[in-house]
Amino acid sequence: MSWFRPMPTTALPRSAPRWEGEKSAARVLVEHPDPLLREGIREVLTDAGYEVVTCGGPHASDVPGASCPLLRQEPCPAVNGADVVFSGLKLRDQVSRMILRRIAKDPCRPLVLAAPQREVDEHVPAVTDHVVFPLGSRRIVQQIDELTADR
User: Fold this and answer.
1) Which of 58, 95, 129, 143 could form a disulfide with 68 if both were Cys (CB 3.0 to 4.6 A apart)?
2) CA atoms within 13 A on the CB side of 118
3) How far apart are CA 47 and CA 49, in angstroms?
4) Could you give the C-alpha distances from 30 to 3, 60, 131, in angstroms and in order?
Protein backbone atom coordinates (compact mmCIF):
# COMPACT_ATOMS: atom_id res chain seq x y z
CA MET A 1 0.00 0.00 0.00
CA SER A 2 1.39 3.35 -1.01
CA TRP A 3 1.18 6.51 1.12
CA PHE A 4 1.08 8.62 -2.05
CA ARG A 5 -2.40 9.45 -3.29
CA PRO A 6 -2.59 11.38 -6.57
CA MET A 7 -4.71 14.50 -6.55
CA PRO A 8 -7.71 14.59 -8.89
CA THR A 9 -6.99 16.33 -12.16
CA THR A 10 -9.71 18.90 -12.50
CA ALA A 11 -9.23 22.03 -14.54
CA LEU A 12 -9.27 25.11 -12.36
CA PRO A 13 -10.45 28.39 -13.82
CA ARG A 14 -7.58 30.58 -14.91
CA SER A 15 -7.25 33.69 -12.87
CA ALA A 16 -7.43 37.01 -14.64
CA PRO A 17 -4.17 38.70 -15.58
CA ARG A 18 -2.78 40.84 -12.77
CA TRP A 19 -0.45 43.79 -12.45
CA GLU A 20 2.79 43.06 -10.64
CA GLY A 21 4.98 45.32 -8.56
CA GLU A 22 4.79 49.05 -8.02
CA LYS A 23 3.36 51.19 -10.78
CA SER A 24 6.22 52.80 -12.74
CA ALA A 25 4.31 54.05 -15.80
CA ALA A 26 0.77 54.37 -17.09
CA ARG A 27 -0.84 50.93 -17.31
CA VAL A 28 -2.63 49.63 -20.38
CA LEU A 29 -4.69 46.46 -20.54
CA VAL A 30 -4.64 45.06 -24.09
CA GLU A 31 -7.64 42.81 -24.65
CA HIS A 32 -7.64 41.10 -28.03
CA PRO A 33 -8.72 37.61 -29.14
CA ASP A 34 -5.88 37.23 -31.67
CA PRO A 35 -2.69 36.22 -29.80
CA LEU A 36 -0.37 37.58 -32.52
CA LEU A 37 -2.05 40.98 -32.64
CA ARG A 38 -2.31 41.08 -28.86
CA GLU A 39 1.43 40.40 -28.51
CA GLY A 40 2.28 42.94 -31.24
CA ILE A 41 0.25 45.67 -29.55
CA ARG A 42 1.82 44.76 -26.19
CA GLU A 43 5.28 45.11 -27.69
CA VAL A 44 4.49 48.48 -29.31
CA LEU A 45 3.10 49.90 -26.07
CA THR A 46 5.92 48.46 -23.94
CA ASP A 47 8.48 50.03 -26.29
CA ALA A 48 6.61 53.34 -25.87
CA GLY A 49 7.15 53.13 -22.10
CA TYR A 50 3.85 51.74 -20.84
CA GLU A 51 3.27 48.88 -18.43
CA VAL A 52 1.13 46.37 -20.31
CA VAL A 53 -0.92 43.34 -19.33
CA THR A 54 -2.72 41.29 -21.97
CA CYS A 55 -5.91 39.27 -22.04
CA GLY A 56 -7.55 37.19 -24.74
CA GLY A 57 -11.05 38.26 -23.74
CA PRO A 58 -14.06 36.26 -22.60
CA HIS A 59 -13.61 33.56 -25.24
CA ALA A 60 -9.86 33.09 -24.72
CA SER A 61 -8.78 29.61 -25.69
CA ASP A 62 -5.08 30.12 -25.10
CA VAL A 63 -5.48 28.81 -21.54
CA PRO A 64 -7.61 25.72 -20.82
CA GLY A 65 -10.34 26.40 -18.30
CA ALA A 66 -10.20 30.14 -18.97
CA SER A 67 -12.75 32.11 -17.07
CA CYS A 68 -13.36 35.84 -17.34
CA PRO A 69 -14.26 37.37 -13.96
CA LEU A 70 -16.50 39.94 -15.67
CA LEU A 71 -18.65 37.08 -16.97
CA ARG A 72 -19.11 35.96 -13.37
CA GLN A 73 -20.11 39.49 -12.29
CA GLU A 74 -16.80 39.79 -10.40
CA PRO A 75 -14.21 42.56 -10.54
CA CYS A 76 -11.30 42.02 -12.90
CA PRO A 77 -7.90 42.93 -11.41
CA ALA A 78 -6.47 43.64 -14.87
CA VAL A 79 -9.24 46.11 -15.71
CA ASN A 80 -9.27 47.68 -12.26
CA GLY A 81 -5.50 48.29 -12.29
CA ALA A 82 -5.39 49.74 -15.80
CA ASP A 83 -5.28 53.43 -16.66
CA VAL A 84 -6.56 52.61 -20.16
CA VAL A 85 -8.17 49.52 -21.69
CA PHE A 86 -7.38 48.86 -25.35
CA SER A 87 -9.81 46.34 -26.80
CA GLY A 88 -9.99 44.51 -30.09
CA LEU A 89 -12.90 42.28 -29.07
CA LYS A 90 -15.40 41.36 -31.77
CA LEU A 91 -18.28 43.83 -31.53
CA ARG A 92 -20.70 41.48 -33.28
CA ASP A 93 -20.34 39.05 -30.38
CA GLN A 94 -22.96 39.55 -27.64
CA VAL A 95 -20.66 38.40 -24.83
CA SER A 96 -17.89 40.77 -25.96
CA ARG A 97 -20.37 43.66 -26.05
CA MET A 98 -21.46 42.84 -22.50
CA ILE A 99 -17.81 42.83 -21.34
CA LEU A 100 -17.15 46.17 -23.03
CA ARG A 101 -20.21 47.74 -21.39
CA ARG A 102 -18.98 46.57 -17.98
CA ILE A 103 -15.51 47.98 -18.62
CA ALA A 104 -17.01 51.28 -19.82
CA LYS A 105 -18.98 51.78 -16.57
CA ASP A 106 -15.95 53.49 -15.04
CA PRO A 107 -15.81 56.94 -16.67
CA CYS A 108 -12.31 57.52 -15.23
CA ARG A 109 -10.84 54.61 -17.21
CA PRO A 110 -10.77 55.30 -20.95
CA LEU A 111 -11.73 52.44 -23.26
CA VAL A 112 -10.14 52.45 -26.71
CA LEU A 113 -11.73 50.21 -29.33
CA ALA A 114 -9.91 48.81 -32.35
CA ALA A 115 -12.90 48.56 -34.65
CA PRO A 116 -14.47 50.41 -37.56
CA GLN A 117 -16.53 53.40 -36.37
CA ARG A 118 -19.65 52.03 -38.09
CA GLU A 119 -19.43 48.82 -36.00
CA VAL A 120 -18.98 50.84 -32.82
CA ASP A 121 -22.01 52.97 -33.71
CA GLU A 122 -24.10 49.90 -34.56
CA HIS A 123 -23.19 47.59 -31.67
CA VAL A 124 -21.92 49.65 -28.72
CA PRO A 125 -22.97 53.28 -29.15
CA ALA A 126 -22.06 55.57 -26.27
CA VAL A 127 -19.53 53.08 -24.87
CA THR A 128 -16.49 55.08 -25.98
CA ASP A 129 -15.35 58.11 -27.91
CA HIS A 130 -11.94 56.56 -28.53
CA VAL A 131 -11.64 54.44 -31.67
CA VAL A 132 -8.43 53.42 -33.41
CA PHE A 133 -9.00 51.90 -36.83
CA PRO A 134 -7.31 50.86 -38.99
CA LEU A 135 -4.66 49.69 -36.57
CA GLY A 136 -1.23 51.22 -36.78
CA SER A 137 1.56 51.42 -34.23
CA ARG A 138 1.80 55.20 -34.36
CA ARG A 139 -1.96 55.67 -34.09
CA ILE A 140 -2.22 53.33 -31.10
CA VAL A 141 0.62 55.03 -29.21
CA GLN A 142 -0.68 58.50 -30.07
CA GLN A 143 -4.17 57.66 -28.75
CA ILE A 144 -2.81 56.13 -25.52
CA ASP A 145 -0.40 59.08 -25.08
CA GLU A 146 -3.31 61.53 -25.31
CA LEU A 147 -5.39 59.59 -22.79
CA THR A 148 -2.58 59.17 -20.26
CA ALA A 149 -0.98 62.61 -20.56
CA ASP A 150 -2.15 63.72 -17.10
CA ARG A 151 -1.73 60.41 -15.26
Assistant:
1) 58
2) 1
3) 5
4) 46, 13, 14
**Please, which residues bridge with residue 111 across strands?**
85
Cα separation, 49 vs 129, whole angstroms: 24
The structure's pTM equals: 0.84
**Which residues pair with residue 84 across a beta bridge?**
28
Instruction: Report the C-alpha gap between 109 and 130 in whole angstroms.
Output: 12
Alpha carbon dihedral 117, 121, 122, 125, in 10-degree steps, equals: 140
Q: How confident is the model at residue 66 (pLDDT cuts 50, 70, 90)?
A: low
Buried-exposed string 125-138: b where 16+ CB fall within 10 A, e elsewhere: eebbebbbeeeeee
